[in-house]
Amino acid sequence: MSVKEKVVIIGSGPAGYTAAIYAARAGLKPVLYTGGQPGGQLTTTNDVENFPGYPEGINGPQMMIDLQKQAERFGTRIHYGLVTSVDFSVYPLKLVVDEKDDVLAEAVIIATGASAKYLGIPSEEKFANKGVSACAICDGYFYRGKEVAVVGAGDSAAEESTYLSKLCTKVHLIVRRDEMRASKIMQARVKNTPNIEIHWNTETDEVLGDDTGVTGVRVVNNKTGEKKVIPVQGFFLAIGHKPNTDIFKGYLNMDETGYIKVVPGTTRTNVEGVFAVGDAADKVYRQAVTAAGTGCMGALDAEKFLAAKEMEMAHS
Question: Residue 37's pLDDT is what?
Answer without folding.
Answer: 80
